[in-house]
Design a protein that fits this description.
Chain lengths: 161, 164
């Protein structure tokens, strides 16, 4: 009887483990469209640019796309943490935020492709959501980083780190 | 200034403006990079050909949609002096080699980097395609997924005009 209860407990623990990991597994799906991200969780380029120029505390900004494109131009202070359409890239993002407080203000962005075709941003968003972060936004880049940030005259930095 | 003189000045200015030559087309920046097969590729060695220079990446959906057509154009128009060159902006070569095998690419692909991107005015979103004349001048810069039928017509027209 006792061993049966232990067996049930093991089964329950295994089921719980699987259930807890489903969101992270889903986050690793590269085909989640960016349009699935709720509008309330988006921030517009003009608003982020304004907040960066203000005296208010700056969020942690993470670029989750291509490292080559990041090296060419990125938001000053941003860190590279991708590409999150791949497991290895998701792991980089996961490692970067693992020790952060869940209420850390974070902004994610990519800008590699038009919004609906971006393979990186939704997996990154889903990962943060699954890990319980509560104060993060996603930069809405309609076309690409060049057109919607650089060409607008917002601040830019170069380099791989 | 008398009204007649003013009219004359305006007429001269207008005529001069009309007579100004069209601004010269920008010369495509030359580069030397290594192909996936390990051979050096010099853009300038394709002078005399109509070149389609395509910046792409394996993770870019719109890029992948275009590639089979570019590959077929190389076969179709290659004998008429047309050359596609792919520049991958991937971080690593391995997925590019895999994609090249999968699509059985009929044209060379090189690995690009941020320096080449800057040389071409900023490759900050993919795909970006340049159409380069046989004289090495940039005829078009196409940002984003292009209308492939329209581009094919343009390539065919340019190649027809190129014939002696």
């Amino acid at each position: 009887m006792k061993s049966l209860s232990t067996h049930k407990l093991h089964l329950f623990a295994a089921a719980l483990f699987i259930l807890l990991h489903i969101p992270i597994a889903l986050a690793q799906n590269a085909h989640i469209p960016a349009s699935s991200i709720p509008t309330a969780d988006l921030i517009q380029p003009a608003d982020l640019a304004a907040s960066l120029q203000s005296a208010s505390p700056k969020p942690l900004i993470l670029q989750v796309g291509s490292h080559v494109l990041f090296a060419e131009a990125h938001i000053p202070g941003a860190e590279y943490a991708g590409p999150t359409n791949q497991d290895a890239g998701l792991q980089i993002l996961k490692d970067r935020i693992a020790t952060l407080s869940k209420d850390t203000p974070i902004v994610l962005y990519c800008g590699c492709c038009p919004w609906d075709r971006c393979p990186n941003i939704a997996p990154a968003y889903n990962l943060l959501h699954a890990m319980g972060f509560t104060h993060f936004k996603v930069l809405y880049i309609a076309d690409n980083f060049g057109a919607n940030w650089v060409a607008k005259g917002y601040p830019v930095a170069k380099g791989r780190s | 200034m008398k009204p007649r003189s003013l009219l004359l000045a305006i007429a001269i200015l207008f005529t001069t403006t009309l007579a100004l030559p069209a601004p010269p087309k920008t010369t495509a920046p030359d580069f030397t990079l290594t192909t996936l097969e390990g051979k050096p590729l010099h853009l300038s060695s394709y002078r005399g050909k109509l070149v389609l220079l395509n910046f792409w990446a394996t993770w870019c959906g719109p890029c992948i949609a275009e590639i089979p057509r570019f590959s077929s154009w190389q076969t179709k128009f290659g004998p008429q002096g047309f050359q596609v060159i792919g520049v991958s902006m991937d971080d690593d070569k391995a997925p590019v080699q895999k994609a090249a095998r999968k699509f059985q690419l009929t044209y060379p692909v090189v690995m690009g980097d941020e320096h080449l991107g800057e040389l071409y005015g900023g490759i900050l979103g993919l795909p970006i395609t340049f159409l380069i004349s046989p004289e090495g001048k940039i005829l078009a810069r196409i940002q984003g997924e292009t209308d492939l039928n329209q581009l094919e017509k343009r390539v065919a027209t340019l190649l027809a005009a190129k014939k002696p």
